[in-house]
Amino acid sequence: MSPLLYTGRGITIRNIDGFMITLAINGQNIQAENGSTILQAARKANIHIPTLCFLPEVQAIGACRVCLVEVEGTGNLQAACVFPATEGLKVHTNTEKVRKARKFSVEMLLSNHSMDCLTCARNLNCELQKVAHEIGVNEIRFIGDKSKGGIDDSSPSIRRDNSKCILCRRCVTVCENVQSVNALSLQGRGFETRVETAFGNGLGNVACTNCGQCTLVCPVGAITEKDDTEGVWDAISDPSKFVIIQDAPAVRAALGEEFGYPPGTLVTGKMLAAARRLGFDRVFDTNFAADLTIVEEGSELLKRVKEGGKLPLITSCSPGWIKFIEHFYPQLLPHLSTCKSPHQMLGALSKTYFAEKEGVNPKDIVVVSVMPCTAKKFECSRPEMTDSGFKDVDYVLTTREFAKMIREAGIDFRNLEDGTYDNPMGEYTGAATIFGATGGVMEAALRTAYELVTGKTLENLDFVAVRGLEGIKEAAIPIEGIGDVKVAVAHGLGNARKLMERIIHGDADYHFIEIMACPGGCVGGGGQPIPVNYEIRTLRAQALYNEDKSLKYRKSHENPSIKKIYDEFLIEPLGEKSHHLLHTKYTPRGKL
Fold it and tell me: Catalytic site residues?
């Protein structure tokens, strides 16, 4: 309970924001903000308490019993993640009683775990493995029946293995409280408790958006992305195939973490060199197609504003968001931009424009996309994504899968010399780079829309009002000839739901809305290196903004290669050919 600050006249006040308290942890007096838990106070003082079910910013439920501590004056051991820090509290984190209790909790978890560590996707990056090592678990003392396992392989994006689940509930909490999707829930009681989808139908058969946020927060390997690396290896090894790889902007700001670089380190050059070492025939940049998306989407916005089309126009480059609106708000589908996501655009152009230009038979071309996103695995399998006459994108690898391939090939990533992109789809602008951060698509679109409408050069390219990790951001941008263009940006599907409800109730007076399924945008995508938290998302986004400032071209419509592809192939934005290859339609879906 928080300290009693005032009582009288029937009023009791126990919590004042900013009020500092003093407590003792292991005999060390530390200060903490009133309302903190013991775990928060300990972390602020750099005192380590192990955890498993705790998830910063999202969940504190004390279910795993790994963060147990001894609190003087209480009879039982307490879970540090939920027990309030109060004035004068005396806490002990390393007594014999605490150590034995923690060890017992972890041993019980391990007794019901598959423990196939050597073949697990999370081997050496598993929180259960780490905690067991930290607290000195050297053997499994308890052997008996294991709760029901089972593999859920129904989704093209995500794989579940219940034999590894430790019932920490992180996936359930993120899916429900952050993403507001509720595709997962706890079912059963006692020893039969398990994480499951509705009626046990599997993630591929329920209203799962494939966003993959569950894969980021699972502390073990119970939920992972669907591994497509073998298919890519087979394509590279087939001499009859011409294999193209493309990468999204958020990948270059995160891939380095898999090889020991600090979060927010751009490793573009080494990433490209690694792709060539792996054997890809061409290395293109999804940023090129991001610039193309802005030209098409910006033209679409201006057309709707001028001709009275359906507003607000909502971005369509996040496939997790697209599946969300298809399931939960199908009546709002006419608000979506018809633009495909950038990597699908590049896939279609690879099998048409590039194939024609280079004289390669499109049936022999295999397009591989390296994405920060698990939902793009589902997206590339949509029947709508075949406008090239073939499957536009053949395989999607997450950032984690691409790193896995680099390691499998024995490539010394850190000592690679920097590589470069190939033409004609490797040139990009700063506007495309910031696509990877929440607000980036909006900012890129505004840079182009302003100049297309006014014919004037935009002096200040930084629209800082749409940057940052606030859940929903709003701004009004004055554009001569149109007036104030009202925009909104949301990241995370829980925030997207709030905006959709505003539209339904007539409370959203916007012209343009950007929505990204993942918190932080693509830098926090479901396929990115683990762990991901607020600080890491911020550092990755800042790396993209820094690159934007360093580039010669910072507006999508100024990209010389974009101008060239319209001159040589597409003719004009929203024209017949671009509409056929670069735009799509959507599918209303049920909620189950």
Answer: 297, 300, 317, 337, 376, 379, 384, 522
